[in-house]
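STRUCTURE REQUEST FORM
Protein name: tRNA-(Ms[2]io[6]A)-hydroxylase
Source organism: Halopseudomonas salina
Requested output: structure tokens
Priority: standard
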Amino acid sequence: MWVEQALAHPAELLIDHANCEKKAASTALNLMFRYVDKPELLQKMSRLAREELRHFEQVTAIMQRRGIAYRGLSASHYAQRLRQHVRTTEPGRLVDTLIIGAFIEARSCERFACLAPHLDEELGDFYRSLLKSEARHYRDYLTLARQYADAPIEDRIAEFAVIEGQAMIEDDSEFRFHSGTVDGSAKLA
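Status: completed
Returned output:
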């Protein structure tokens, strides 16, 4: 189970968590640069990028207090497996990217909630504190996807749910934050 793997790899958990926060900020910034004509997206992604960078700073501060050096880790294949299915024409490309963002945020929420009760007080409290913002990010991504789609997106969300479920269970050679299954399952609405 993922929780046992996470507890067995505390340094990798924190390093990969920091990497995920940095990548989330980068994704938000990339969307801002690519879609300059979408004011609501610009505002939501600006806020999201700032929050994700703040989370990165918080994770690296915890690592420093625990004597864990920030270093490069190979990336999980989870997000790459999702991005392989992004359409190449607009607005499909944007909508798919936003749906993937929602799945990643929902999955992160699930991971924080499952892991927090098993951690020391500092880290458990920190992970619980992230739940509200991660849930808001998930909702923001879905709201934007619906806003910019040229048709209802429920079928596309269902397609990505299957893809995401498979991406999560496909084996990664090393433990990473989004690798492996937990008892729950992130659901999108």
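Reviewer notes: The CA atoms of residues 3 and 41 lie 34 Å apart. The helical segments are 2-8, 10-34, 39-65, 78-83, 92-115, 121-148, 154-169.
Form closed.
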